[in-house]
Structure prediction request, 665 residues.
Amino acid sequence: MATKTYREALNEALREEMYRDPNVFIIGQDVGKFEGAYRVTQGLLAEFGPKRVKDAPISEMAIAGAGIGAAMAGLRPVVEFMTINFTLVAIDQIVNNAAKIRYMFGGQVSVPMVIRTPGGGGQQLTAQHSQNLENWYANTPGLKVVAPVTPADAKGLLKAAIRDPDPVFFLENLALYNTRGEVPDEEYEISIGTADIKREGTDISLIAHSRMVNVALQAAQRLQDEEGVSAEVVDIRSLRPLDTETIVNSVKKTNHAVTVEEGWTTFGVGGEMAALLADQAFDYLDAPVKRVGGEEVPMPYSKPLERAVIPSVDKVVSAAMEVLA
Amino acid sequence: MKQHMDYYRQMLRIRRCEEQIGWLFSRGLTMGTAHLSIGQEASAVGVMAATRPDDYAVSTHRGHGHLIAKGADPAMMLAEICGRATGFCRGKGGSQHIAVRELNFLGTNGITGGGLPVATGAALYAKTRKTGQVVLSFFGDGASNQGTFHESLNMAAAWKLPIVYVCENNGYAMFTPTCDVTSVVDISVRGAAYGIPGVKVDGMDLLAVREAAQLAILRARTGHGPTLLEVKTYRFCGHSKSDNGTKYRSREEIAEWEKRDPLRTWRARLIEEGVSEAEIEQLEADVELEMAEATRFALDSPYAEYEALEGVYADESARRYLPGFFNSSRDAAMAVEVSA
Prediction:
């Protein structure tokens, strides 16, 4: 195993899949000559040429739709949006076409397309460029939504997403691209629809996805060091389909749960987790589930204001202590 | 001559089939909505007459004519509109969501302008794979004011994609006169903004439509990129099943257009060309019979009653978002579906 960045892991997955399957191609803004707004597609234009790595106009609807049409005809597009915020411009194509085409056409055609895009705040990119909207897509039948946190998960899940016969919304995170982790050298993929226990514990389950898994891991360490609490960190990893078993089993063991998400709390992922636990682990819960999420405001600009809004290790620790109290 | 009779047959099949659809709705034999293209038949038949069978088509909410002209079986189309298991999409799509995979018909679409980017993507496929196929992207005048129109034409022009954008301008964006809400009189002039030919053609004249489509398709097939083809046409009926088309259009206007009914003028042309009245009547009787049988087939077909929860993903297990919930509520969901 070698240590790689999240960005490198994604790049490797793309390169390997493009060698494996000539139908795989990349389309998006600045994915070619500029090698990706966040350098995920570095070197791919030189290696595969402009037919496989297409620089598109700043036309999100046309980019998403072109991916859908090409996928229906037989290609395997990987569509890159510079950030999740810009998928809003394309949301009609994603929700009204990509998600529904297999079902509403009675199974005659599929849309084997991946939409890659980073979400998240913390870079002082402000209200229109710091959002977490993956729950919008996770709410939509017909889409699959994954949100890996480690480089290894990113590579394995991106490979699975590209090979998947259905549209996959692949959430990255601006603050993860430079993070490092061990990535297996051998060929592997990670099944979409599997959660992962990132840290074992016995007293409380911290349930998170994407970058907030790292926040939860730091909180778990603090809880151990300062409070003597053994926290288990459950990485949801796949929002849709959801690995309910792993999540529910964790809480059956720890009897306590805190959810952590970067997006707004209301109508969010944590709410879904709380409903799931109420439905399937009610008798195992010793206390109500607590949700930690982004404060309910558009993202402010200045560093202190931004910090006040994004979920922090402090907030997770104090929520956990409240639940355990 | 046989070809001219075929064109008449195709236009008449569309007309009679859509009349059946109107009848099914008026009798309450099917519900929901449908958008008829009565009056616009020369556009669908004229354009399709210029295509190759393996060319792709992407259509709109007003797509029955495109489907039939491309070769779709009206019985299966009517079955779909009646929500039956024998429909093209097993009753999951309805009028606005009909695809026919083996005809490379990539779907009617319920969102104004929603199909243009998808059609552009199919053209990207054809160009990438060098298949020689051309994509026919149908849309209306209303869609030409959507962002998808502008984004798609720019993209296809920049990449010289093999696609023909066919704007069927029937003068009304739902219930609003196109001229009230559109910056140009002829939508075809918008081609200039993307450096591609913009061609306008009389949509009541089948041969003119065919000729213009032939040129545009030839251009696309030989690597010269897209064309914006504006077909000036008119719907004699309302926008949808909830509208008879007279609140926002004068009866005089409708009557004026009806004088140029493409079926009537084409029939007169056949007579002039020496086809006997008897031959035409035979053809008309055949079409009547075909559509009556197609309607009976649709109404006699069963519903796909137990499939409501199936077919969202290739792998059914992926739909089990909350397995516990799903299992316990499956029977209840089925019961609701059956009684509905």
